[in-house]
Amino acid sequence: MAETRKGEVTFKGNPIELAGPKLKAGDAAPDFKAVGAGLAFVTLAETAGKPRLFNVVPSLDTPVCNKQTKHFAEVLKELGDKVAAYTVSTDLPFAQARFCTEAQIDNIANLSDAHDHSFGEHYGVLIQGLPVPLLARSVFVVDASNKITYVEIVPEIAQEPDYEPALQALKAAAGA
């Protein structure tokens, strides 16, 4: 069983338990197996080649996740193809695709962790004790050599992340 951490994150003020390690800048980015477009498996190696932003949300069908993803999509436009960005949630790939189509987001790819929750477990953001698996709101920046350069696990799931430090880390990793 994966290590668990309690008290680091709350949901509407109530402490929740997270499965997996507490990652930090400087750590090697763990591998994962998520489901991308066309129901194809995607691993860390398949995202490699440029600095990446992993925008992790509980569900795109909620207002804060919706706002967070739209904000990142807007501000990432200035970096163009120097970086890659992924929204990771336990939503099914069909729901993720519908959200991006409706929101007109085409610069962030979707990764569904619904298959085996390996992203959530390996990145330490899988919420334990809920009737359905969800990921804690978080942001990871991983450089082209698969080293984590920035981590924010938002302490209150109902709140947005601190966008600016994540964007600065991504720009630094991209040399922009």
Structure description:
The structure is a single chain. This protein has helices spanning 44-47, 63-76, 93-103, 118-122, 163-174; strands spanning 4-11, 14-19, 33-35, 41-43, 52-56, 84-89, 109-112, 126-128, 138-142, 148-153. The protein is built from five helices and ten strands. The mean pLDDT is 95. With 176 residues, it is α+β, with helices and mostly antiparallel strands. The chain is globular and about 40 Å long. It has a single domain (24-174), classed as Glutaredoxin (3-Layer(aba) Sandwich). A five-stranded mixed sheet has the order 7-6-5-9-10. Strands 1-2-8 form a three-stranded antiparallel sheet. Strands 3-4 form a two-stranded antiparallel sheet. A hairpin with a 2-residue loop joins strand 1 (4-11) and strand 2 (14-19).
Helices and strands in order:
Layout: E1 4-11, E2 14-19, E3 33-35, E4 41-43, H1 44-47, E5 52-56, H2 63-76, E6 84-89, H3 93-103, E7 109-112, H4 118-122, E8 126-128, E9 138-142, E10 148-153, H5 163-174
Parallel strand pairs: 5-6, 6-7
Antiparallel strand pairs: 1-2, 2-8, 3-4, 5-9, 9-10
